[in-house]
Design brief:
Strand content of chain A: 15-25%
Oligomer: homotetramer
Radius of gyration of chain A: 20 Å
Structural class of chain A: alpha/beta
Shape of chain A: globular
Chain lengths: 343, 343, 343, 343
Amino acid sequence: MIEAGIVGGTGYTGVELLRLLSGHDQVNIKVITSRAEAGKPVSDLYPNLRGHVDIPFSEPDIGVLRECDVVFFATPNGIAMTMAAELLEAGVKVIDLAADFRLKDIDEWQQWYGMEHACPDLVAKAVYGLPEVNRASIREAQLVANPGCYPTATQLGFLPLIENGLVDTGTLVADCKSGVSGAGRGANVGTLFCEAGDSLKAYAVSGHRHLPEITQGLTEATDDIINLTFVPHLTPMIRGIHATLYARAKADVADLQLLYEQRYADEPFVDVLPADSHPDTRSVRSSNVCRIAVHASPRDNMIIVLSVIDNLVKGAAGQAVQNMNLMFDLPETSGLLRAALLP
Amino acid sequence: MIEAGIVGGTGYTGVELLRLLSGHDQVNIKVITSRAEAGKPVSDLYPNLRGHVDIPFSEPDIGVLRECDVVFFATPNGIAMTMAAELLEAGVKVIDLAADFRLKDIDEWQQWYGMEHACPDLVAKAVYGLPEVNRASIREAQLVANPGCYPTATQLGFLPLIENGLVDTGTLVADCKSGVSGAGRGANVGTLFCEAGDSLKAYAVSGHRHLPEITQGLTEATDDIINLTFVPHLTPMIRGIHATLYARAKADVADLQLLYEQRYADEPFVDVLPADSHPDTRSVRSSNVCRIAVHASPRDNMIIVLSVIDNLVKGAAGQAVQNMNLMFDLPETSGLLRAALLP
Amino acid sequence: MIEAGIVGGTGYTGVELLRLLSGHDQVNIKVITSRAEAGKPVSDLYPNLRGHVDIPFSEPDIGVLRECDVVFFATPNGIAMTMAAELLEAGVKVIDLAADFRLKDIDEWQQWYGMEHACPDLVAKAVYGLPEVNRASIREAQLVANPGCYPTATQLGFLPLIENGLVDTGTLVADCKSGVSGAGRGANVGTLFCEAGDSLKAYAVSGHRHLPEITQGLTEATDDIINLTFVPHLTPMIRGIHATLYARAKADVADLQLLYEQRYADEPFVDVLPADSHPDTRSVRSSNVCRIAVHASPRDNMIIVLSVIDNLVKGAAGQAVQNMNLMFDLPETSGLLRAALLP
Amino acid sequence: MIEAGIVGGTGYTGVELLRLLSGHDQVNIKVITSRAEAGKPVSDLYPNLRGHVDIPFSEPDIGVLRECDVVFFATPNGIAMTMAAELLEAGVKVIDLAADFRLKDIDEWQQWYGMEHACPDLVAKAVYGLPEVNRASIREAQLVANPGCYPTATQLGFLPLIENGLVDTGTLVADCKSGVSGAGRGANVGTLFCEAGDSLKAYAVSGHRHLPEITQGLTEATDDIINLTFVPHLTPMIRGIHATLYARAKADVADLQLLYEQRYADEPFVDVLPADSHPDTRSVRSSNVCRIAVHASPRDNMIIVLSVIDNLVKGAAGQAVQNMNLMFDLPETSGLLRAALLP
């Protein structure tokens, strides 16, 4: 059994990690920390976990965490970078669900995240945990930077086009729609039921932290310059991301559908839908699947890709478990195979 | 492996059965019928099942169904009663998720359901599939009448009081709130997003088919006359039933909390919350659990029970799988142990 | 023109007052206070009011408020009682949308609201602003205690029965369902979209502040002792209260429907639906109407009343405007006549 | 008083017309037709209109309609074109809320709408009812083609850029999100609460009828070729359209914000938000306003416009009333001035 620790388990990615790990038969949840809730049973906060997770939250204790085989950070940005080094030295594998190790360019990271990075050297060693791109490296990694939710949906949608040099990478558009859980469990007016309900809006049009992460990922797939316009939207649903991606074809593409099907043929968690499909976010609710449909519009030479994930699963906790499976040489799908919840 | 057939699999209880059975490692889904969708892959209708259920819908064929070990009817009322006899004769176990075999009083059934019953003799043999009451009989049953959603939540909530003769059974009130999926997947104006969304209403105040079912169940637990006022409400959520139950105490009850905890101590799917709790329906979303809290109001001698289930799971497909597990001597919780989805 | 001031205008009752008063052709909104948002245009917080309310929030200034004809308190409990005396002395009419002046029994008030009352003498002078009961007194009042949302829906539903001595007042049950806006605009985890959405729960079963208010109101309508069991529920909609009321008939009631129709025949804002109706909350969304349906269940001698309001209108700001109209001898319906928003 | 008739009043645009016209003090609703509901009071179907609209639905009767001053068609496509000629001959003004008179190119209309056009000559005479473009013509018109919902939000958002030749009109993208009411009140599985709720999807990526309408409107504002990629999405809210518009700037634009403010300075129903704003759809819920924010992204030379309307008001019934006001020389804002409903 893999002994797992979770640092910062009171948010939505934390509870989702608990849900998934409690159903994973190779994992024992050894410790889950929360300063604010230390001493309180996890199931007091999350009654869905009654009978599934019986330990209480505890104060973060590096000594206990060092005894784990793997530690997940489900913390705000800036926490994992202060604790990772000591855990790695103790031989613990670390998966950070926040952004501390996602951007290779430290200056850019510091600019977008507004703080000084505590361990630039570890950033260099960290592997970006998108298995569909970095599977081999993840298997060998001791430190994985789990991708953001928008970046996961957007990169998986764009990659077949960019890897094959089929589109103008200077005019990409990603119009993304997120459920409210993407904003976390903090008590903010903007995400109250009566503020976010029955309404829809764009946000952060002038710039969002996931933009450099997406750009970095797409840049690694091409020699061309990536220029992406990224507009996120807050939409009145709990879970789900729908990325609508626009790319201008360089020339006629023979068979886009086949291209996508072949690119993801061996991927257990990317499902290319039949031609002319429109995936809905609920078709992946609670599951680790990314569903993709690709449409070509010959009239205006535009390729439109629709890519949906559950932001808390393939966009966070599920992908973290997928990465853990790879890092421990378990079957990649362990604990992640249940069908999505619909309706 | 148990070879399972599903008759009428296009509704919400059908897809939920498929979701649960596809994750049950002792079951193979052999056939799923639908006249309207025959020939179409199940996953065309329900993309969440892509990769989980690979067979197409087929025309109902009694020959194929007779080769199953168990057949679930996820059909409208009045279908199972026309096909059950032949299946039972062939040695197939039958679980009807509709109401054909729930009411022992044929006249009452015919009155509420507006049709003649096709096989009153089978009604007598059928076991009412509420494991918390009839576990031993279900184990021996060949034909199980799977309870309704309101009746499950309401009976589990009231039973400890009534079995122990603690309350006035002549003045019971069940004020029940249901998610919209309880109304099924039929194309009706009343359950459109813009009709049922952001609004709430009572319905069927003058009489609902689940009233005689609840009354029958409670009557078996007491020698007293049961008189229940039952008012269902349609509420703007997808899944979930919240039963708020009111019963007047005959006398001071020493320790209600202990009574409930003891009654359900060995039940894998009834979870009595700590004193002064208020279960929310999402704490059981996608799970087979019934969560119950009991409150006593000494001021007015009233006992208030809060009982929540997922109407499609413990209120339908999950309870059907629980019954199947019992009928085939499998561990009762097989395929039903995952934590609820929250948020 | 009536010069109106609003103290504490950043919550949902505040913005609703602004919406209604901005459409009232006899009212000029002179001042709206908020310590936290002083200096900021109202429409920065509430863009729906751009072009309708052009003044900024300002610090509460008793000098400015004294120059108003009427001051509304849309503040938390405990604020109005510290400012009302000075305004009343200056001849200003005061309408408190919070609870400071609702309960005549000061001890009971202090017990439920957990603070000492600042001006018990004013409580005695205040008129409880339920026009369907106290219209004449409201016309003469200088200080009106605007009723709570649950109390409005519940009293209007029960009153015809109790005024006429038709039911056992010792066993009343009010099972009430509220939209989330009833919990206000404060940043609390419990009312986040992902906590309150797609779920339903009871709360405060052991006791809610609106219970003594309802009991006081019903007690004034009868010589009998009122004993009410009141259970509020949080439901996933923005606006709306649905009160489901249960009362046991003392004897056969000749014509309940007629009784209700006659009781409210002259009421502009109480609409008794035809027999066998089920009002939905959206039928009163944004309007000041209370819609009521009454059902008798001869089988068990139970009378069931369904009563719906928009908690922010007839349950708060709309009723406050109705009271203002009465206090200033305007037509009672001024500014309140638009049809509800549906869908 | 203007005597108004409504043909086909049972859908969402019909009830919205009734809501708005019932609050318009210059209009009397003389007749509202529905074959299916003839004889039934309007308020049976729409209880929000009890006390506001007291007439019943009636069979369409050209004789009665000819006596109206104005007739609104809130019918499916293809109805108005069969009745308009006779009404126009009788001197009645006609406003079609469907698409019969929107496209000037008859062949294109016939291709997109899949039927033969009954009166191409009237199409030539019809005025496209977007007051911000065609105000003078609308004042003189006898037949107005009321714009579609997506076209209204999209054209108002793009027009200042295109009228001034600031962007590359060959690479426009409109990513639009609609509430479910845009799909109408028909009983379809796809718009059930449990299908469209808590989920989001694109639809009609291969082509939507509103594309030629938008293209036609934008083409009239420029000599350049318009090439627009338009992707509509179904989102889990009742009302609202959010258009996110992408256009590539030809060169640096001095002051986009000022450009938009000046373009719409005199428009009563277009509200340009301050720089760096993000309008939410609820800020226009129930109101006839289009709220617009414009963002320039110098990094990638992209201009992003956010444009929101209530699809049933400025996107349908409200704009129809605005057009009626113009056609009858009433103040343009009559009956349309109330603030939006928020929350």
